[in-house]
Specification:
This protein is an all-alpha fold. It has one helix at 2-62. Helix content is 92%, strand content 0%. It is built from one helix and no strands. Belongs to the cecropin family. Residues 1-23 form the signal peptide.
């Protein structure tokens, strides 16, 4: 029974230490993924803007837009 308590205590200590060591790696991954998603979002917004301008030019050329 004491062996279970000791094993559990050692397991908890190892889990806490591993969590702290992995935290920096996960933080770096989170920052890089946020930067990537921000880049993709900005690129998509620019494409939408260019597409809207092209649609306006095409509508003006056809005479649909007043």
């Amino acid at each position: 029974m004491n062996f279970r308590h000791i094993f559990f205590f050692v397991f908890i200590i190892l889990a806490v230490n591993l969590q702290q060591s992995q935290a920096s790696w996960l933080t770096d991954l989170k920052e890089k993924s946020e930067q990537t998603f921000q880049y993709v979002k900005n690129a998509a917004l620019e494409v939408i803007e260019v597409g809207q301008k092209a649609a306006d030019v095409a509508a003006t050329a056809r005479g649909d837009k007043h």
